[in-house]
C-alpha cells in the first residue's frame, strides 16, 4: 500500500509540475482568449507566478527532507560532501557531451528541447534564468530523484527509472521525428548520474547543487553563444 501511495504521489507531483501553468491557459482558450497575444511582461509574469506557486507546494511537501538534508550537506564538510556528486556528474556530463556531438552529426541539428530553450531565452532571459537555474534544479530533483526513490529501494531499478523518466520528459515535449528519441541518451546520462548520486549520498542537496551548477553553466554558455552569434 505504501508503494502504491508513493507511485500516486509521484504521478500527482509530475502532473502538477507539467500542467499547473497550462490548466488556466487551456481554460482561457476554451473561452476564446489566446494568452500568446498577451504583452510579454504580463505573459512571463504569469508564468513566473505559476512557477513560484508550484515551488511552494512541492517544497512544502518535502519540507522535512529539505531542512534535514540542508544541515547535513551545507556544513563545514561541504567540500567533502561535494566530491561524490561532482565525480558522478562529471561522468554523466562527459557522456552527454559526446553523445550530443554524435547526434549532432547524425541529425544535423540540436535537440528540440534545447532549441525551444534558446528561443525562450531570447524572448525572456530573466525569466529563463530563474526557470533554468533555480526552478528546474529544485523541483526536478524532488520529483525525479526523491519521489521515485520513495517508490523503490532497489538500486538499479531506481537509477534506471529516475534517469530514463527524467530524460524522456525532456524529449517528449519537442518530439517531431522518431530519431529525436535518440536524444534520450544525453538527457538520460545526466539523469542517471544524478539518480546514482542520490542513491549513494541519500541527500537531496547533493543532486540539487550539481543540477544547479550544470544548468547555470549551460545557461551561461547559451548566453555567450547567442551573443557571439
Task: Report what the structure shows.
This protein has about 230 residues and is mostly helical. It has one domain (about 1-229). It has helices at about 1-20, 20-30, 40-60, 65-75, 80-105, 110-125, 125-150, 155-170, 185-200, 205-229. Helix 3 (about 40-60) runs parallel beside helix 7 (about 125-150) and helix 7 (about 125-150) crosses helix 9 (about 185-200). The chain is globular, with a radius of gyration of 18 Å. The model has no long low-confidence stretch (mean pLDDT about 90).
Helix-strand layout with pairing:
Layout lengths: L1 H18 L2 H9 L9 H22 L1 H11 L4 H30 L4 H12 L1 H25 L5 H18 L11 H18 L2 H25 L1
Helix pairs in contact: 1-7, 3-7, 5-9, 5-10, 6-7, 7-8, 7-9, 7-10, 8-9, 9-10
Quick gist of this model?
With 229 residues, this protein is an all-alpha fold.
First and last CA, distance: 54 Å
Describe the main β-sheet briefly. none
Count the beta strands. Answer: 0
Number of helices: 10
β-strand percent reads under 5%
Work out the radius of gyration: 18 Å
Large-scale geometry: globular
Structural class: mainly alpha
Level of helix content? over 70%
**Overall tally of domains:** 1
Summary keywords:
229 residues
